[in-house]
Amino acid sequence: MNLPIEFVNRTKELLSEQFSAFEASLQEDPPVSVRLNHHKTEISLPLEKVPWCETGYYLQERSNFTFDPLFHAGLYYVQEASSMFLEQAVKQWVIEPKCVLDLCAAPGGKSTHLRSLLSDDCLLVSNEVIRNRAHILTENIIKWGNPNCVVTQNQARELGNLTHFFDAIIVDAPCSGEGMFRKDPTSMNEWSVHNVNQCAIRQQDIIADIWDALKPGGILIYSTCTYNLEENESNIKYFIEKYDAEVLKIEVRDEWNIHSEIKGDFATNRFFPHLVKGEGFFMAVLRKSENETRKFLKLSKNKSKKEIVKTPEIVKKWIFDNRNFSFEVENNSIIAIPKAFESEMNLINLHGNILHKGISIAETKGKDLIPNHNLALSIQLDKSQFATTEVDYSTAISFLRCEALQLNELLPKGYTLIQYEGHPLGWVKNIGSRANNLYPNEWRIRSSYLPENLKTFWGKSK
What we know:
The protein is α+β, with helices and mostly antiparallel strands. It has helices at 5-15, 19-25, 69-72, 86-93, 109-117, 131-144, 156-159, 193-210, 233-243, 313-316, 342-351, 373-377, 393-400, and strands at residues 32-36, 56-59, 76-78, 99-102, 123-127, 149-152, 166-172, 214-224, 246-248, 269-271, 281-287, 325-330, 333-338, 354-357, 359-365, 368-371, 387-390, 414-420, 423-430, 435-437. The chain contains 13 helices and 20 strands.
């Protein structure tokens, strides 16, 4: 790996005698890790644990996740181990939050992690400004299955209008990506000192745009996947001085080998690949001053303008705890909104471009009610309301490719839930001679390739 000479010189100054070990680590294959969805599986894998994450595991080798139906069912997320350190910041400093924002959320690793860490009394808002990445984020949030979520596509300054709205904001800031060099060697070609400085300025602008949305006393978790001081310690010093913010220390264990306080007299956390089993990563936790003048937003009890249509009672029965949801219709889509967060969602709708919220339960087409794919993957789905069929591996892959299926002729006609190893994958409409596949076309497996003797980390060969 031919590192940029300016990067070498700057990082040598940062690490001094540790640089040789650091450089050697970049020649090694990066570790592969996953995080389980405890709402969908309670298994414990016989694999090495990620020490700072209760549901994180290192894999012995990289699986072909595209061809694992359980990945598409939302049982796990493939996530870099260092970034799972978010768990420690949240558990130690985000106490009983009611509303949390993941500002730069795509593709969804930190958002799905947050949703597993936050209580059911908390609403998670996941935002991504780039449209195609926002749709990928939406897909991953839906697969994770929790209804207490909103996905938005907005600039930070637009969400910043939600003054004093969020108890915690996570900013995994767009950065120069030095920590990803061994995972993505092509990123080295884009690296320059100029780009580092531009990223640092952009990060300052992002925090400036969103700061007003954080409640007084609220927590901002700032992270990057880069090593330089400009985007890390220097920016934290800038935030302390500009916003009178307090830096909070995350308690870590010595055996984790997490670097702290490379420069500055405040607590930070750095991950270097020669010290930890993970990629380059930086995190700091800031607390907003309690003394800032409070500006409360009035939470509207009235819904924004929507088509008022009575929801069929049968649809309400498709989810558990349906008394805890309100039902509305938008563009022929029936959506279940958690009543506990209805006012907050209405207010977000005034300032944000919402792509997803709650549970999209069904589409109306004439007198027909077509169950939505969101419902199939929701942890609120009541499977007893539908015909279900368990499929083998090859049929599951055919379904995930949006191919027509031939099902058991004894199955009743109508909408049937496809399951693999007991976990829902989506819907088909059984018409007798064949089953029309309702899997979202934009989510389908596009490759016609099928690995031979595929072995997943669950220990089952296909």
